[in-house]
Design a protein that fits this description.
By secondary structure, the chain is α/β, with parallel strands linked by helices. 42% of the residues lie in helices and 9% in strands.
Length: 1148
């Protein structure tokens, strides 16, 4: 059984080549085909999905399916096994799929319905034990809500940190499936709020993410340490991630404590039989690229090859995976980063920049075919501003082609025509008239605004769908349910709908029994358009409403407004900032100006795209009198005695040649004046109405053409310091308000990028029975919308399979799919590589499974009925069970004590440490508690006020990862933490922890400045050591090294207790046990109130007359002062709570 598919999976086609449907059906059992033919309603179960569930119910294991075959549907079937009929919890579910068609919510809820049309109501078994669902992301949860509703099941409760401890314990007692975060599950199991014996089983979704240091593996280990009978089932639809790395599958299965691997690719015979029998009509459309897009794409590929060649020169990178085809996927970044992380501190800046450039070029290749020409040009301009001299690819020969062709897709510059030589006019000879000199010899801007290649094709497809729907409607009115007669009487005029009507002719269930409706059988369902992401979906929405040309004009006008705003900012119309003020060198005088705090690369890129002023880039070499950091403002001087001071100007107004900037400025001014004229013309009727009503209006407002424009000042003269808008000028904000009016409901003013405009646009398309969705937000959209026509704008293998599964669920509901792809493009290559990569991954998994030898003792579940002897438990009648190697501690306390004891003296017994450690509950977001438990420590979670880990009553550890260390040193939080640790513990320890696969160093030695100051991490760390001489500073190479260090430090130390550790730093009288019964968000708000400090907020919690914040507001000032123990703080709190709300802020 190489496929893990039971008796149905004996024949395997590793090539994945399509064979005839009749050949496939000959190899499939008749029972499977009967089940396929009987499938009708949306809640019907396909044969391969039921086989997958039966496999997991029979024996625990890891099931890997092809992406798009219904991971969430299989999970819903597993949850259905824990339900019983007759429940009352099925009616409280809320759907989360936006923009449902009319009647879609009611239609989507009729899954598995019986004769009377009402779905069966189910409830989970109460008291049978909890079923923990781990690793499910928000996208899958949203889809699972729809499928639970379709099967008539209640949606499992979601347990997060917002759920109180008492409520969690109540949910645990009721049992049944529940979503639990790994942090909450680990903490509750360790503190015995959820004993392992009360857990019925664990379901791990996205099992490919499980590693020895993951939180899912920690919960599984805790579960198996006290329960060997419960089930453990794992699911994943990422076969590629299971083949990445060295023996990844073995590691995942070892962490899951299972020996069974089930594989279900798309080419499995039962899967092919189920899906091919109901395949929808597919129309493949290959859209050719324009010449300019081809040149840009070829240039991007050439630049990527040059970067690959440069990267191959590094001795730290494996050259076998450095191909342009591999560079088109995001996984390429992880592969390169995984190779460079251990030596990142010694890698040259050139190699680091090449890695960043490859990521940028991959984004360029994606954005070229996904977004419009203006947006792509703006992105290129942003890259030029934010990366500039730092980037290497911009200095290549092909980079010029990318920028030039991207500009020509939007506009070109043309010189004004010259009629003839100067001095010659009409006629010739002495009496000829002198020709008039042209008004301007500057090049004029000519708009090209090339639309996306697929946009016009989508417009044609939508029109074709509307025409075919009319033909199908006439056929439905004539023939009704008589399909046989309909197919036989098709004429030549029905060529466009003949393939649609001839598809899906198998046996159907009646409409009242869950089958498709008559409208679905005749293609009267909605039209669904699916794009890659939200931005592409938004553009498609605007294109369908405005047309390709109209949308391009709108985007072009936005671009001009941005350039105009940036140009006005560069000319000084906005109030100058401190960064731009100053003399020859900015605010710094002779040196560079006092620039603002440096922005990250992403912040600079985002600000430049929004048209905002961005601080200077990398500083130039500073001369005498310049600041040490060399920061300079936008107006930084060129140097002189003060050095060059600042970096590049980050304003989009300086992009391009002077001729381009001048032409764009002229076009932007023309557009601005035209927009003002239209706005004033639109406001003129309202002004006249207000004038008739008796309001005083200016004379200009009564003019139908609107008020006259403000007089422009003479060229070269700026406004004075005391001039305001009343003096004839206007601010940038006022101009923006005039040029970008609020959406009034008119289609010309519709902006789909705003929430109001997006909702209005969706309503307009819904009236046309058209819906646009993004692939990133498609959770169960097919089951909800039930479209008859689907337009796949961006090819995606997973979504194509989802369409096939949806069509197999509802045979008889005819469907047509328009599959669009750019011909000979990077998009096509990425799609084909994605399919080939998945097929190769499954082939490798099948071969690996055939030769794998799983140890029998790795199986965590025991099926015998006798009582079991489990490690850590006791029982007189317990039967022996093989120990799990995964539960054996990595650190043996007895061996550790014997290695330290140098004087055993005649076999003297040593008293080893028990390795108890108290861990702060917030630390369970890291992997160190899991490694400590794996190393043999008894982990005791509780909320600690001081420190992160308590090793003994006198020893406390504050753990810091490298990013957290740098941030806490910068904001001073670490100083406060060290003060509390030194005050309450004899041995305070600061542990600086690095990651196992990353460099063991704070920064590259070449980047360390010669003169350390207090603004560097090393300088701040040195000051911390000097201020707290009592503090111990420890460095850890990895999490496993930290566990061994903890074991060494605990030698000959007393064991800590939760009762003592939780009271450290807490005022007298506060009970640690009360924390689980209070509302933590309310406590956080209480601690932020004026007058409440860390030393008195627990007095408020212990006050008998203060149950909630409302009770606190009703106390008198004397009572507040008595509770807080400080008259001044009590008065501050009372005055804040009883301060009168400003009247001018209240709504009238």
């Amino acid at each position: 059984d190489a496929m893990g598919g039971g008796a149905a999976g004996e024949l395997v086609d590793l090539t994945g080549e399509d064979s005839g449907e009749e050949d496939v059906l000959n190899y499939v059992p008749e029972a499977a085909l009967a089940h396929v033919r009987a499938a009708g309603g949306g809640g019907a179960v396909l044969q391969f999905q039921q086989d997958i569930v039966d496999e997991l119910l029979e024996r625990d294991g890891l099931t890997c399916i092809a992406e798009g075959l219904g991971l969430v549907e299989i999970l819903a079937l597993l949850l259905k096994e824990h339900t019983v009929p007759g429940g009352t919890q099925a009616g409280h579910l809320a759907r989360e799929i936006p923009r449902l068609p009319a009647g879609g919510a009611e239609d989507a809820a009729v899954d598995g319905e019986d004769g009377d049309g009402a779905p069966p109501e189910l409830e989970y078994r109460v008291g049978a034990g909890a079923v923990l669902i781990l690793g499910l992301n928000e996208f899958n949860r949203t889809a699972l809500k729809v499928h639970c509703k379709m099967h008539g099941m209640p949606y499992p409760p979601v347990i997060t940190a917002e759920v109180t401890g008492n409520r969690r314990e109540e949910i645990y007692r009721n049992g049944g499936p529940m979503f639990v975060t790994t942090r909450i599950a680990a903490v509750d199991i360790l503190r015995e709020a959820l004993p392992p014996s009360n857990i019925q089983g664990v379901i791990v979704a996205n099992g490919h993410r499980v590693t020895d240091m993951s939180q899912e593996a920690f919960v599984v280990r805790l579960f198996r340490s006290g329960n060997r009978r419960g089930f453990l089932r794992a699911l994943t639809d990422r076969p590629g991630d299971l083949t990445r790395g060295f023996s990844k599958v073995d590691q995942v299965m070892k962490c899951l404590m299972t020996c069974q691997l089930n594989l279900w690719p798309r080419f499995q015979l039962v899967v092919r039989a189920c899906l091919d029998a109901h395949a929808p009509e597919v129309v493949e459309l290959r859209q050719p690229l324009s010449n300019r897009v081809k040149k840009i794409q070829e240039a991007i590929v050439q630049v990527m090859e040059e970067c690959m060649t440069e990267l191959k020169k590094s001795k730290h990178v494996d050259t076998s995976e450095l191909t342009v085809e591999a560079g088109l996927f995001k996984s390429f970044d992880r592969i390169i980063q995984r190779q460079l992380d251990p030596v990142w501190n010694v890698v040259s800046r050139r190699v680091k920049q090449v890695v960043w450039d490859l990521r940028t070029l991959r984004n360029l290749a994606n954005f070229l075919l996904r977004y419009d020409a203006v947006t792509f040009l703006r992105y290129l301009e942003t890259l030029r501003l934010t990366e500039g001299s730092m980037s290497m690819w911009m200095f290549t020969q092909h980079a010029h082609t990318i920028f030039e062709q991207a500009r020509r897709r939007v506009y070109v510059l043309r010189k004004p025509p010259v009629s003839g030589p100067e001095g010659l006019g009409e006629g010739s000879g002495v009496g000829a008239k002198r020709a008039a000199a042209p008004e301007s010899t500057a090049p004029a801007l000519h708009m090209v605004l090339e639309p996306m290649p697929k946009w016009r094709l989508i417009e044609e497809i939508v029109k074709e769908i509307d025409d075919d729907k009319e033909k199908l409607l006439r056929k439905m009115e004539k023939y009704g349910a008589d399909d046989e007669t309909l197919v036989d009487e098709l004429t030549d005029d029905d060529k466009s709908i003949a393939p649609f009507l001839k598809s899906s002719k198998d046996i159907r269930r009646a409409e009242g029994e869950g089958g498709p409706s008559l409208a679905e059988r005749y293609g009267q369902g909605p039209t669904l358009i699916v794009a890659k992401d939200e931005a592409a979906a938004s553009q498609l929405t605007g294109m369908l409403l405005r047309g390709s040309d109209g949308l391009m004009r709108l985007i072009w006008e936005k671009y001009l407004r941005q350039r105009k705003a940036a140009g006005d900012s560069a000319k000084g119309k906005e109030k100058p900032t401190s960064a731009s003020a100053g003399g020859r060198g900015g605010a710094g005088g002779r040196g560079g100006g006092r620039g603002p705090r440096p922005m990250s690369k992403m912040d600079r890129m985002r600000a430049a795209m929004m048209g905002e002023s961005v601080p200077a880039g990398p500083p130039g070499p500073a001369g005498r009198g310049a600041r040490a950091d060399g920061a300079g403002g936008p107006n930084a001087g060129r140097g002189g005695r003060g050095g060059r001071g600042g970096g590049r100007n980050m304003n989009v107004a300086v992009i391009g040649t002077p001729a381009e900037r001048e032409a764009i400025a002229v076009e932007a001014d023309r557009l601005h004046k035209e927009t003002l004229r239209k706005t004033r013309a639109a406001n003129a009727p309202a002004a006249r109405e207000r004038a008739r009503a008796g309001h005083k209006q200016a004379t200009g407002d009564l003019d139908p053409a609107g008020p006259p424009p403000a007089k422009q000042q003479r060229k070269g003269k700026g406004k004075g310091k005391g001039e305001t808008a009343q003096d004839g000028g206007s601010t940038i904000e006022e101009e923006r308000e005039e040029t970008t009016p609020a959406f009034s409901g008119n289609l010309d003013d519709l902006d789909v990028d705003t929430p109001e405009g997006a909702a209005f646009a969706a309503d307009l398309l819904a009236e046309r029975n058209v819906y646009v969705h993004a692939l990133t937000d498609r959770a169960a959209v097919l089951a909800t919308v039930r479209p008859s026509f689907i337009i796949v704008h961006d090819p995606d293998a997973a979504f194509i399979r989802e369409i096939e599964v949806h069509a197999a669920h509802r045979p008889g509901a005819r469907m047509r799919v328009y599959f669009m792809v750019h011909d000979t493009s990077v998009e096509e290559q990425r799609y084909l590589s994605q399919i080939n990569y998945e097929s190769d991954s499954f082939a490798n998994l099948i071969r690996g499974k055939a030769h794998a030898a799983m140890p029998f003792e790795q199986e965590g579940r025991v099926h015998n009925e006798t009582p079991l002897a489990i490690a850590g438990t006791s029982g007189a009648s317990a039967a022996p069970v093989l120990p799990l190697p995964q539960l054996q501690p990595l650190v043996d306390p007895k061996a550790l004590a014997a290695a330290r004891n140098t004087r055993i003296r005649g076999g003297q017994l040593s008293n080893p440490t028990k390795l108890h450690v108290v861990v702060d509950t917030r630390e369970f977001m890291s992997s160190l508690p899991s490694i400590l438990h794996q190393s043999g420590f008894k982990v005791m979670p509780c909320t600690l006020e001081v420190g992160d880990y308590v090793l003994s009553p006198s020893m406390c550890v504050e753990r810091k990862s490298l990013p957290d260390l740098i941030e806490s040193l910068r904001n001073g939080r670490l100083v406060t933490q060290m003060q509390n640790m030194c005050r309450h513990y004899k041995i305070p320890i600061l542990l600086i922890e690095f990651e196992r696969d990353k460099a063991f160093g704070i920064q590259n030695p070449a980047d360390v400045p010669k003169d350390l100051n207090f603004n560097t991490t090393q300088g701040r760390l040195a000051m911390l050591i000097w201020r707290f001489p009592k503090m111990r500073l420890m460095w850890s190479r990895s999490l496993h090294m930290t566990a061994r260090m903890f074991a060494d430090w605990k030698y000959a130390e007393e064991e800590p207790t939760v009762e003592v550790a939780s009271k450290v730093g807490v005022p007298q009288g506060a009970e640690a046990g009360e924390r689980n019964s209070v509302n933590q968000p309310a406590i956080d708000m209480l601690r932020r109130l004026p007058g409440i400090t860390d030393s008195n907020y627990r007095r408020v919690l212990d006050a008998p007359d203060v149950v909630c914040l409302a009770d606190l507001a009703e106390l008198t000032m004397e009572r507040m002062q008595e509770i807080l123990g400080d008259p001044r703080q009590g008065r501050t709190l009372y005055e804040f709570l009883h301060a009168q709300y400003p009247v001018h802020l209240m709504g009238r």
